[in-house]
Amino acid sequence: MGELVFTGNKGVGVRSDCFVSLELTSGGGIRLALDSKVDVMFGNSIRKEIHGILDHFNIKDAFVTVEDSGALPFVIAARLEAAINKAIAGEKEFIIPMLNENQYVTSKDRNRFSRLYLPGNTPSLMINAGIHRPNGIILDLEDAVAPDKKDEARYLVRNALRGVDFYGAERMVRINQGERGLADLDFIVPHNVNLILLPKCEHPEQVHAVNARIREIGQHREQLNPIWIMPIIESAMGVINAFAIASSAENVVSLAIGLEDYTADIGTRRTAEGSESFFARSMVVNAARAAGIQPIDSVFSDVADMDGLAENVRRSKALGFDGMGCIHPRQIRVIHETFAPAKEEIEKAKKIVNAYHEAEAKGLGVVALGSKMIDPPVVRRALNTIQLAIKMDKLEQNWRESNE
User: Fold this and answer.
1) Is residue 64 part of a domain?
2) How many helices and strands (H and E) does the chain possess?
3) How far is residue 125's CA from residue 76's CA, in Å, rounded to a whole number?
4) φ/ψ of residue 5, rounded to 5
5) 144: domain CATH number?
6) N or C: lower Cβ tally within 10 Å for the chain?
């Protein structure tokens, strides 16, 4: 008789998940007890899936119970595989098919106004997250997952990367710290993750270690799509080393700050006005700009205060940030609208670009708008503002269409 192992979640409020118990036996074949809310419609297919996975791992004798609260097949597969690997540490994996919709790559300079954090062990929040149109969706293996659930969450995140439609959002995973984080990479790097968030980053060597492991995993594959890295600065040491971290590798595309851990590290508490974090946020912005990457601000934790969120975004934008994290879908639209160029900014940008083109057509070496001289960096910023406004118009159209 083997040890009785458990994976998954059950209880009041649990949706789209299942709880699996598995005990290997010395005979008797497979004995399966399924208690499912959707047994009438999908019971036979669930049983078939479970037997197929057990057969894949060559398990012939076991007692399995599954308490199902409407889990999709990718969730059942993740929970059962995690239980099997608790019972027998094998080399096999049960890899579900990759959705065609998930086989995209992302660019280094794409917009990252919003990134939506989702707990990596809560499938109900993953399934439709993309319809809210965040720029990025983060499946979080770190702070949002209880310590005793971290191993099984890896299987769920891996399957979500393959089996959940992200609607074009950048597919991000926040890994754990240290050796556990490097082990997380085995579950996400081969499955077309677009960006890895590196928490509590204090030294460039942490970035180098992640890239070394990515390369090692890539040696066993014919092709590995570009994988970007977003280090998160969450300590005084990280702030001091911000530029070294930001410039540590070509695939570092943005530098984020996590203010809850940072304020705890310096012995203060986070406030709405943010005076206690002004130095750190300015350091992160300047380090990112000096390295030619995007500075990304922390999350706003009050999900009910939309006015407070908008004011926070305005402060963030004024400091030079390009985006921020969010912890609830309702924050996404406010973040996008407030980070987007204002009407006055767009009109000014158009005047600058028109003045540049007129001067160029006349063969003038000097460009002026009124009494002010315009140099090339100002023109580039104006062009970026116009392009951003066009992208935001398209995003607004997508929102309208998704709500019709």
Assistant:
1) yes
2) 14, 14
3) 16
4) -120, 155
5) 3.20.20.60
6) C
Place of tokens 């005793």: 148
Say yes or no: 138 and 190 in one domain: yes
82 lies in the same domain as 111: no
Which residues, 6 or more positions from 43, have their beta carbon under 8 angstroms from its beta carbon? Answer: 34, 36
At 240-297, the pLDDT tens digits run: 999 999 999 999 999 999 999 999 999 999 988 889 999 999 999 999 999 999 999 9
Considering its fold, how many domains does the chain have in total?
3
Burial of 13 (0-12, 13-18, 19+ CB in 10 A): exposed
Collapse the DSSP code of 329 into the 3-class scheme (helix H, G, I; strand E, B; otherwise coil) and give the result. coil
- Could you give the 3-state DSSP secondary structure of residue 290? helix
Within 8 A by CB and 6+ apart from 399, the residues are 133, 333
Determine, yes or no, domain membership for 227: yes
Name the residue range of residue 50's domain. Answer: 5-87
**CA separation (Å) from 394 to 114, 389, 390, 400, 401?**
16, 9, 6, 10, 11
| Residue 357 main-chain phi, psi, to 5 deg | -65, -40
- In this predicted model, what pLDDT tens digit does every residue of 295-332 receive, in sequence order? 999 999 999 999 999 999 999 999 999 999 999 999 99
> How far is CA 123 from each of CA 72, 100, 292, rounded to the nearest angstrom?
9, 20, 36
Cα–Cα distance for residue pair 349/374, rounded to 1 Å: 11
Same domain, 287 and 209: yes
Residue recorded with tokens 């700050």? 257
What's the rounded mean pLDDT across residues 176-181?
A: 96
The Cα–Cα gap between 63 and 2 comes to: 10
